[in-house]
Amino acid sequence: MGPSNPHKFQLDDLDEMARQIRRDILRMLMISQSGHSGGPLGLADIFSSLYFNIMNFDTKNPTWPGRDYFFLSAGHLAPVWYATLGRAGFYPVQEMTTLRKLNTRLQGHPAPGYTHGLPGIEIASGSLGQGMSIAVGAALGLRMDKKLNHVYVLHGDGELDEGQVWEGMMSAGHYNLDNLTAIVDRNFCQIDNRTDKVMEIEPLADKWRAFRWNVVECDGNNVGEFLSAMYKARNFKGKPSVIIAKTFMGKGVSFMEDDYRWHGIPPSIEQGKQALSELAPTRFGDFHEFEWEKLPAMAK
Amino acid sequence: MTKIESKGDKATRQGFSDALMELGKENPNVVVLGGDVSGSVKVDAFAKAYPDRFFSVGVAEADMMGIAAGLALVGKIPFASAYGEFAAGRPFDQIRQSLAYSEMPVKICASHCGITVGPDGATHQSLEDIALMRVLPHMTVICPGDYLETKRAVKASLAITKGPVYIRFFRDNTPMFTDESSTFQIGKSNTLIDGSDVAIIACGLQVWEAIQAAETLHAEGISARVMNMHTIKPLDKEAIIKAAKETGAIVTAEDHQIHSGLGSAVAECLAQALPTPQEFVAVNDTFGESGKGIELMEKYGIAQGDIVNAVKRVLKRKK
Prior knowledge:
The structure holds two protein chains of two kinds.
Chain A: H1 11-32, H2 38-42, H3 44-54, E1 69-72, H4 78-88, H5 131-144, E2 151-156, H6 163-174, E3 180-186, H7 195-198, H8 204-210, E4 214-219, H9 223-235, E5 241-246, H10 269-277, H11 295-299
Parallel strand pairs in A: 1-2, 2-3, 3-5, 4-5
Helix pairs in contact in A: 1-3, 1-4, 1-10, 3-4, 3-9, 5-6
Chain B: E1 9-11, H1 12-26, E2 30-34, H2 38-41, H3 44-49, E3 54-56, H4 61-73, E4 77-83, H5 84-89, H6 92-101, E5 107-111, H7 129-134, E6 140-142, H8 147-156, E7 165-168, E8 173-175, E9 190-193, E10 198-202, H9 206-219, E11 224-228, E12 231-233, H10 237-247, E13 250-257, H11 262-273, E14 278-283, H12 293-299, H13 304-317
């Protein structure tokens, strides 16, 4: 195996791809009129970095044994993953129009590619808190076989309320899994309110350190900072690493930014058009053209 | 009638242990997860023989199921071991999403099931696990009846490469009614004693109770068929329908709640295919308590005498 991201974008391209992913998320949600806006928009820079620079995979052979494993533990963030998987080449981007519709591979929460989900999705998620344990199992198994694949798992900060995450963190620390990198989407927002109102999780970095993790903090909406944090984590030996990535929920759309009320709702057509006007079209192009006014009828 | 002798007493959990030792030798991908009860669920022998393939995950069954899923994803064959209540009840959501919905080939090995675990009392008496596991799509549920059958079931589970398998066994030493010549196939029941008046369909420790009950009934002139329904899912519908057709009366027996266990599975089958009078020998919608296994079986109505009485009740209802 050779370490290879098939795209290897540099900073400007990663930024542009992140903007396209944001456009895709908004347009998918405008069509589906169901799904999560805020978290996915906040993660576009991280997903652009992961799939267009960091991770090794082969879109023609999604189960290539040399691939890096990525687990989206917070499954409700699916729209950013789906947009990214399409852009990275795992499936035709036009299929984004089917999000959450009957017979779609873009299930409301991710289903694996070998059942009824998209290629590139390893296992189901949606019920929160399960990804860390799965990542630990994969990392243990790969290490047993002396394989060099890296394992990534992404958690929401609200998701850290789930006790199983801490069980898994403890296991990863116990087994010194340095082939595992966790990413926490630290946007300080969850469904009901700000995270400190719902359940205070600070001091977060200290907690991970106490669980025997190497902690790297960064601005998750800055592609350059995130990349350097990730390469630092990937090369750290002897312990698993966590990137606590500070992001803004709804990043890129002025009226959504840092507002927890955008956690679980889609934009209306009007709000969507407003949001798209704030995100200039990219050289990658939108997945489909619509006459948005006719869409509510079409969506039915 | 066929006379079935016990070949001595041995624990079903020992069958699990011995199967793991053989599998460990045969297949380098077999890995075992332990949750701080390695000695009592008998994975300690494997841990000692294959330390690189044994993972202690602490007292954390939710984590255990996820780790097992991850190991399966990268090509390992994980056996996750715990007491029944903590193998099925506590991590139900993890089993549902990460194993069943995701079709992960993980073997969930549940020891100390049923009321017969005894002195530990109701918190540790897993009486709901068959119900919880059989309701899940893509799940296979096996409840073997003796030492050797447990060993066979554990080894046979390797052939299931799509979706999880739940194997339920017990703590105590119990009579061995199978031997080297017995056959075992997942999803295929074994008729141990032929009979024409009634069919007793049992799983786990109640198979031996059913054998004893059939002998008592035989002495009273009642011809009872005894079927070992070791696989609850997928259910051997063909054999059940045949038994209903040929005997016209069914008794089910299990160390489990009356709701949604083996009895319910049989009733679901017959209600659709051939409605037949049926009596249920099971724990009657109540929690257990401390006591010896045999004392509890008698107090909670799942011993051989209860099977005999159930047969007499169902015969009165038979057309």
